[in-house]
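Subject: Sanity check before I submit

Could someone independently write out the structure tokens for this chain? I want to compare against mine line by line before I put it in a report. The sequence has 590 residues.
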Amino acid sequence: MLSALLYLRLTSLKNLLLTRLRRLRQPKYLFGAVVGVAYFWFLFFRRLGAGPSVVVTNVSILGLPATRGSLALLVAPLGALLLLAMITLAWVLPTEKPGLAFTEAEAAFLFPAPLSRRTLIHFKLLGSQFAILFTSLFFTLLSNRWTSLGGNTLTHAVGWWVILSTLNLHAAGAVLTLTRLIDGGVSPALRRVVVFGGMAVLFGTSFAWVWHDLSAAPAAPINGFGPFLLTFLNGGTLHWLLWPFKLVLGPFLAADASSFLLALGPALLILAALYFWVMQMNAAFEEASLGLAEKRAAAIAAWRSGKRFSVRVRPNPPGRRPPFALRGTGRPELAFLWKNLLATHAWLNGRTFRLCAVVIVVGCLWLARHPEWHTQQMMVGGGALIAGGYIMLLGPQIARQDLRSDLVNADVLKTYPLPGWQVVLGELFAPVTILSGLLWLVLLTAGLAFAPHGASAAWLTPGVRVTGGACLALVVPPLVALQLLVPNAAAVLFPGWFHSGRARGGGIDVMGQRLIFGLGQMFVLLLALLPVGLAAVVLVLAFSWLIGLPAAVVLATVAVLTVLMGEVWCGVWLIGERFEKLDLSAELRG
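---
Independent answer below. Compare away.
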């Protein structure tokens, strides 16, 4: 029977590859495949045979020198803590009876067949191994240059396979165990209380243990956040709690062949124990798996039709509070904002942003009161700026509650008594609001974290920081709108490419199409920001000595806002003109 299931998996994989190859006959997929292959070649494969990278040793990470030994000491407990968090979520997140992730076709053909539950579990684990192998190879390409951790391509590949297989086997065992617990009457609330309560007790006990040991040895103080973190994670009850996870990470972090072989044995024993645990579970998962398969099929259909991608856990969720009161009269763009905000996650609301702002203010002010934590304060500010950069680059591709989500409803939108530019502007409001809120939190964090220390930064007065932060906050919405114009213009100008690029799990050709859209977005953004940046620099340099730095910054902000708003308006008008002439049925044909 297992040979037949293996044949089914291999045949499905072969047909998937043939399907991807056949669609390369279409130019939009062929060009995307060329770009995707070139990306992988220049970024990964070309560097596989290169020599070792230069290890920088004159910098520090969390107060530890960036040497191979220090990085290994730091990565092992932090990686083990991350694995512990991922495994804990598997026991907390399911709110109703969970099921194994069979597809709708697999559930329809395999569940009525004369197969035992053990055979179905073997089939599921076998299918997941194909995905794990490909994912391990991809992660190996990403980590091939991490020479500071030691090892080589082979040890990293096997290490990733061990890590991903461990997570997969635990996920299957957790699903089956939760199914038995729910059948036995254990509620989700009780399960969460037990899991979170147990974790709180373990972490609290470990912290008290380590703090007591440090207080009892004043002759050997722990200086710096990094050494204290290592002492905390490697001491107390956390030492024993994270020990099996460190064994799982052992093959990946092995520095040479001998240490790799020594670390591989315990990791394989943990895999064998998880496999034995999964095989010993005799839980009735078929009904829950059928429900999960139906939800996945409905989510994929909704995603492909341009609606919100969401797998609802509860069949009848309660009514959701609207983002704001929508009046019967007013600007029609606000109706688009109201509609698209309702399509986002429920936690993306004003209350969440206000709570994050309070946490940021309290945390940064607490750090500012402790001069010995100045390095960590600068790290918080630097991390905020890095997060802001990622939001600016990737946010417009992720926040899709705009014309891209409503593209399949273009014929309905065109029946509205509104000009095209008004429809486009209304569709942009929701992602502009969400991304602007996130970037405002970034600016708040950076403004509070980069407080001046010493005479070298005396010019960075509170007035300069407040003025600069407020001016940047004013520039953020039009800048985000300018970013969003590019993907929305691509959706209207090239709906055939855009529709194919939205295919779930599309392969390297679809990834190439997304790369083309992303590069085009960056190019247009740089082209649009070039005159704005030059004007801002010239104004600040020319008027800072005459009217002062804060006033010069305000003057430059007014000029930047004028240029940005003009660029955004021209882009909205041009996209609106193209939207009015769009015939989606003709564009997506073939």
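---
OP: Matches mine. For the report I'm noting this point. The chain has two domains: 68-295, 332-587.
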